[in-house]
Amino acid sequence: MSRSATEFMGTPAGLFHWIPGEMIVIARLTRIPLDDALDTVFEQIRTQLNTLLTRYRLTLDPYGTAGRWEEVPTMPLVRRRAFVFGLHSQQPLVALFFHVHPLDTREGDPLPAALSYIHAHVAYFAQFGLHIVSAMPNWLVTAAPLLYSDGGPGLPPRPAPALEIHAPPQALPGWHLRFAAQGLTLDARNAEDVTVVVLDTAQHPDRIRSAATRPELRRNWLLQRLAEDMRLEDGSFMVEYDRYPVTNDVRTGHDAAQRNRYYLMPDHGLFVSGIIRDLAPRARIRLVRALNDFGGSDLYSLFAILTDLEHELISGTIRRLVINLSLTVLPDFLRLPYLWFQDRQWPTAQLLGAQNVLTSLEEGLRLLFDSLFAHGALIVAAAGNDSYQAFRKGLPPRPPRAPARYSSTLSVTSVNSNFLPSQFANAANLPADTSGVATFGGDSAGVLDQHGLPDAVRGLFISPTFPGGESNLTGWADWSGSSFSTAMISALGAHLLAQGWSAPNSITRLSMGQGQQSEIVFGTPVDISSLLANIVYTQQRFSL
Question: For the Peptidase S8/S53 domain, which residue ranges apply (predicted)?
Answer without folding.
Answer: 249-504
